[in-house]
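Record type: monomer structure entry
Structure origin: computed from sequence
Chain ID: A
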Amino acid sequence: MLEALSTHTLEERPKNLYAEVMTLSHRNIIFKAGIAASLGILILIIIASFTVLPLYPELQGQAETRPSGLFLSIHIVNPVPWAPFAVMIAAIAYALITMILIFFFFEKTHAPEILFVAFFALSFAMEAARITLPLRTALNLPGVFPILGYRLLLFGRYFGLFSLFTSSVCASGLELQRQGTSILILTLSALTIALGRPVDGFQWDTSLCMLAGYDSMFTLVETAVMLITTASFVVSAQFRGSPEYVFIGIGSFLALMGRYIFLRADTWLSPLPGLILLCVGTWFICKQLHRVYLWL
């Protein structure tokens, strides 16, 4: 019996090892594709900037309102026309740099959560869809063009939010075999919200984002998901006996809070604090995840 068991184990080990390498290989392909996509988007936006940048002052002057929400209800500083474009460029650059760093540090590290953290970072590249509003004016495109762009923007934002939430669920013990199902569910969830929210194609705020319905309700939903994500990581620290997950939870809270402030900025005052919180939070998450899985 011992001989049979030993033979079975020797036969199974190469298969399991091969499956794990394939999993890492497929995941790394996604990382490389994300890097290439972010770089391509950044180049296209820079090229388009020569056409659209002169239109920003006029479009911001036609805005119906200013972004509202947590820390944004009281506006002390007047909006700056170039701030939304700078935020868009910085968001795409954040996606590119973060994807490169994740690939570099986690290329050979089997950390299930990092795939969804990478999706969170990659979702910032979809902020490029904000350029559809000035492009419509510059190229005299149909009014449906910026509406489709804003729905893509909504999809990216909710896909990123749900990705980080899924990462926290994964930390709580989600089976690796269900990662594909999780990706499908979070994609369909983000797509449902993006297509279901009513969008006004003729009104926008000073961050040059179209106005969408049920804004207060979805702000509450985003806040709830942010708090649940943080709590889930903290609970994982007790569940898995790894205190690093407490810091990952703190990092997720900082990243989501910074993301909320950063993406809604229409002045030079709020983008920098929001971006700092976002970057510090992302560093906390990745640093502690790397520490958890470094010796596994």
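Annotation 1: DSSP finds ten helices and two strands in the chain.
Annotation 2: Residues 1-22 have pLDDT under 50 and may be disordered.
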